[in-house]
Amino acid sequence: MHLLNFILQIDELKFFGIKLINADDFLALLTRFSLNLMVIIAIVVGLYAKTSKRKDFYFSYIAVSMVIFLLCFLLVSVKIELGFALGLFAVFGIIRYRTDAIPIKEMTYLFVVIGVSVINALANKKISYAELITTNLLIVFGLYVLEKILNLRQEISYRIIYEKIENVQAGKDDELLADLKLRTGKDIKRFEIERIDFLRDVAYINIFFDINGKKKLGNDKS
Fold first, then answer.
1. pTM above 0.85, yes or no
2. Residue 14 pairs with which residues in a beta bridge?
């Protein structure tokens, strides 16, 4: 309460012609940012983390969400057109890290995180907080249904360098699959031969398996 009174008291103060604080916008920023952060944590920690078993995307999802929310919120405050804001977050949505391609499910969650942040930031005064909270709850509930009730399984792929070139010959798919399973310790569902380097006598193979496997792949990933 004391903080609110202090904010209201300095609402009219200016520095070089710029208001030190706009009480309404500042309180709206804190409220929406808190709401957005709670929803993102519920999605990332409560849903994504428990099903994917991967922690390497936690930082990216939460950091991207906070930055996108603040960018969109401030862009609306200075009357920048919505098309520019949407184009900005669309750039983030198509990012592929050069060291490791983002799997489809991770890309989907990235889009969800960005979408939720944009919704919470760009909702205008015609949209009540009840509608905004309901929208967020519907998104979380929809993800819960997909993850828990439908029990979708996530497939991941690794690119490996395989030196037993004789197993890459036509008609030896079973031998190749068995050797790949033995070496990686993974229940490989399928594989794709990307290319064969006869100069080095190696093949570049993409293997596909469920991410919730019992063992981790070693250093065969390139």
1. no
2. 19
